Amino acid sequence: MDVVYTREMVAEFSEKLYDTFGFNADNVRAAVYDFRRYGREIQISGELRVVANDPDDDQFIECAVVPARR
Length: 70
Prior knowledge:
Elements: E1 4-5, H1 7-20, H2 25-37, E2 40-41, H3 58-69
Parallel strand pairs: 1-2
Helix pairs in contact: 1-2
């Protein structure tokens, strides 16, 4: 199984750690470093629309589907 992510997902991950969980900037950077170290960045089109009640989550579904197509 591959761990994949997009640049936008890393941005949202960072924002949640900082705003929601109160991580300081150094801890956010360390968490993002570890996240990226074990994964592979991919690009998505951003055109997939499946999560009607929270369209921002569409990127997570598309990220999961895109590697399977390759």
